[in-house]
Amino acid sequence: YPSEFLMQKITEDNQIPVHIHVSMSLQYVAGLKGNALVEFFHGNIAEVENEELRHLMWSSVLFYKTPSVEVMACVLLSTKAIYFLLDDSFIQADEHQSDFWSKETSDCENSSFHLSCCFVLKLNDLQSVNVGLFDQYFRITGHSADHIVTCLTRDSYNTHTFIQQLMAVLSLLARTPSPEPVDKDFYSEFGSKNTGKMENYELIHSSRVKFIYPNEEEIGDLAFLVAEKMDGLTNLQSLNILLYVLAFQVNNVEGAAQNTSSLQPKTLILTSSDLFLFDEDYISYPLPEFAKEPPKRDRYQLADGRRIRDLDRVLMGYQTYPQALTFVFDDVQNQDLMQNLTLDHFGG
């Protein structure tokens, strides 16, 4: 340990997305390569001496207690824990952080040494992993509200790779076997005898961590919600959701020297007749077991919606990743719907 393949892999993965601006401390981490990156992990992050770094990923993250604050993080998976190395701006981003993070950095404010906050979720405390629609994100749940984190990968490959690595690491854990019977029939495992409805598909890992995937009913609920927002739709059966993708709405901000762009996270949903933007709650649903009341806001809140027949033209940017698309509609003058989408979603 570590193998040459692992060293090469984590070096390749240690790249901040080009459209994200991060603090100096995370830029320093992103500049580390190979053995220097492994030494940095053991010298500054790892909690025990014999744990091994297995996977590295850059992703936006959300915390259950601050559902409106999305922050960039370097996610490090070891044989003992999941570490979220957070951008410095996260501490000042929300006034409710005071009881969530201990601020002990006052002595280093005037120092040239850059500090980052590191949130640790031990694998032994992990209870479930909820994978979002079309593998655009996943939520990791521990034993309390402080231990619920959503990774907004916005990329099915990164989600799939992390889940695979997490399952492999969990297989190394020695946990006491569950007292529940091993052999279960199909209906008792996946169905509810009271309602007769299928529950979300669950895979119970040998470590007793649940991996929960969405089923067709979740798509149906989303289609029903979209149908309510569409004018003149009478037949729900004719509605097909062609695309669901987590994207950014680009709002140009007039700066003193030059124009800068502000990225607003949105869920883009495309049907055969309309294009919608939703503000989605990625962290509160499905409700954790300890939740005593539903969240204050709905899971999907409509932010914008346009008819495809009013689409005049689509402008494509020159950059390769992520791809910027500008949708120009002729129903509203001087209001463009701009999106950043990855090229992965346009493959045949």
UniProtKB/TrEMBL annotation:
Its main location: cytoplasm. Residues 241-347 form the Nischarin C-terminal PH domain. GO terms for molecular function: kinesin binding. One of its GO terms (cellular component) is endosome membrane. It is found in: Cytoplasm. It holds the Pfam family PH_PLEKHM2. It comes from the Eukaryota. Residues 114-178 form the PLEKHM2 PH domain. Keywords: Cytoplasm. The keyword Cytoplasm applies. One of its GO terms (biological process) is Golgi organization. The keyword Transport does not apply. PANTHER family: PLECKSTRIN HOMOLOGY DOMAIN-CONTAINING FAMILY M MEMBER 2. This is NISCH protein. It comes from Anhinga anhinga (Anhinga).
